[in-house]
């Protein structure tokens, strides 16, 4: 079935008078309409963010609206989906003794238009060459800004999460089936792969299987960051996407974060916190309340409910 994207875009865009030719002209320069900057990663190094222009984001959101019923994903995917989040992802593994974590290299920036169109073919969705060109130009970033440069998904585009989950659908299905046969729980949160089980020594074959599937599905265009492959068990600290799994089968934000939050709340109470630390505290408290609300209640009793409410509301007093 061929999708009539041009007419759908015109119906959705705020610029109702936009013609097919205007959309096509805009799409020609769209891959270069990104503001590029970097931010520190959680551990080491920096992450490249390519943020689309305001107008390009309108087109990308319109495309998402047009393709929403086609861009489905596997149930093992926990990122960028309604009623799915890091807490739900971690909760799937909380009662398991053994844990394996893996991570992709440069996830979004390794995903190309060919991967998207290959998945569409597998779903028996066929586009015309003009429609393919539109999708490629509006959804993908010209990383090198050169003529016929490498086109990849950008971290900052609103369309990239749904597109990446759709592209990973077949991979997730292969890994899910293999994991189920081995009594292993599998979840993927964007580029984070997590496996857990109560059967000892069953996780050690998983990395080789993942590499095999990546070769079969993506011809090794997606690769694993082997330095981030981690095995752990209940005898050690277990963390899944920043959430601590306790040996009591509960979720926690971890001791270090609790100590830091408590320190920053105290500094806020005595008016000795700067704005940067306050903004960080505001985010930490939201995270804490989501993952471990009992800790937030203890803070409220210790420092006063008004103090906690003001921080949560974002009230900063110089």
Q: In words, what does this structure look like?
A:
It is an enzyme of class 2 (transferase). One of its GO terms (biological process) is defense response to virus. InterPro entries: DNA/RNA_pol_sf (IPR043502), GrpII_Intron_Splice-Mob/Def (IPR051083), Reverse_transcriptase_msDNA (IPR000123), RT_dom (IPR000477). Its EC number is 2.7.7.49. Belongs to the bacterial reverse transcriptase family. With about 325 residues, the chain is α+β, with helices and mostly antiparallel strands. The protein folds into 2 domains: about 5-240, no CATH class; about 255-315. The chain contains 13 helices and 11 strands. The protein has helices at about 5-10, 20-30, 55-65, 85-90, 115-120, 130-140, 160-165, 170-180, 205-220, 255-270, 275-290, 295-305, 305-315, and strands spanning about 35-40, 45-50, 100-105, 140, 150, 185-190, 190-195, 230-235, 240, 245, 250. A 4-stranded antiparallel β-sheet has the order 6-7-3-8, covered by helices on one side. Strands 9-10-11 form a 3-stranded antiparallel β-sheet. A hairpin with a 5-residue loop joins strand 10 (about 245) and strand 11. Helix 1 crosses helix 3 (about 55-65), helix 8 packs antiparallel against helix 9 (about 205-220) and helix 10 crosses helix 11 (about 275-290). The longest helix has 17 residues, at about 275-290. The N and C termini lie far apart (about 60 Å). Mean pLDDT is about 90; it is low at about 10-15.
